[in-house]
Amino acid sequence: MISIDTNVVVRYLVADEPEQFQRATTLIEGDAVFVCLTVLLEAEWVLRANYRLERPAVLSSLRKFSSLPSLTVEDPAALAQAIDWAEQGMDFADALHLACSTECEAFASFDHGLARAAAKVGSLTVRAP
Length: 129
Fold this sequence. Notes:
Layout: E1 2-3, H1 6-14, H2 18-30, E2 33-35, H3 37-49, H4 55-66, E3 71-73, H5 76-87, H6 92-99, E4 107-108, H7 112-121, E5 126-127
Parallel strand pairs: 1-2, 2-3, 4-5
Helix pairs in contact: 1-2, 1-3, 3-4, 4-5, 5-6
């Protein structure tokens, strides 16, 4: 199994550099590939910030990408939950932080917006430290 970096994921998803897109495709579709949640977190940010893709397109791309048969995603249930919450309006990074913390009794943050968004989607309680 080969673990891949954000730039490989982005090249695969946006196909903006043909030679790197082909190499990424060959790797991702031909080998057993592992993807860390941190790579997907960074990929989401790169797709929005650098490529100016809209949130629904980014989330859809991540959902489709993570379901490729050759991929093993670190904590696929947390990723799926984070995408669901992000589709309901929560920031993807915040959603992923919460989804990875479901075994905890609460999530401490100074971010009042995160607390409101978490309550709205029915996730883990967010409270001030």
